[in-house]
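In full, the data:

***
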Amino acid sequence: MNIARATILILLLAGLNSRSVQAQMYEFGILGGVTNYVGDIQPGVDFSSVKPGIALWAKYNYNPYLGIKAGYFTTQVAASDASSTNIWQQQRNLSFSSHVSEVFALIEFNFFKFIVGHYKYVHTPYFFTGISSFKFSPVAEIGGQAYELQPFGTEGQGLDLYPDRERYKLRAFTLPVGVGYRFNFFRFHSLAFEASFRYAFTDYLDDVSLNYAPNDVLQAERGNLAASLADRSPEKGLELNLPDKQRGINTFNDGYWYIGASYIYTINSGRCPRFR
């Protein structure tokens, strides 16, 4: 009889715990932060070029440790050779900016057990990874006017001279990885702080990857503006770069990172038991 009572009690407690987790399956959040680009024009971190970013997301929790998150992130990335301390980059004199519009799907893992509203499981560091797809279009200014760079084929994309250089697509995938720390501050309300890097499956986020195309060929087939956007060294009083001289470095693709804070609301879809 005692064993039977103990078994029933264990099952009841397990059921209450299960319902408490199920009652908190769904979450919604908004993230605000700053973003920075890493690539051919800015190979390292430069806090002077950070831009604001914002994300909206929804999350499904399988249990107190594991959940899946999907959402939308938008930001701006930009960089300029003029900000570099590298002489070669200063002479190259390229620059760009691009609006980034991303949709993402992530798996998030809590290192500690986390249950919103519980007196004990109120904070945890976490790790996440997944995949995202983003749209971009690098833009540069010349003569006070901004121009989208992809249509010009600044590295000879689409020229008969370079049959292997196709125009790059303005949508690409990224591999997101990141870490964060989350804590529950009141009932179904939480805050989280996180940092993430997006490794892009393109080297043309900044319109720079390979070598210079012959400037006279670009001028003849694409016009003076295309030739001027492709080689901007003459703006520094230098000669045009020779054809096939290094313009970018295609050893690694481009990417971007962000640091931000999220407000999270957990939907309480059922009455949770009181924890003591």
User: Anything to note?
Assistant: Residues 6-21, 272-276 have pLDDT under 50 and may be disordered. The longest strand covers residues 95-110. The chain is about 15% helix and 40% strand.
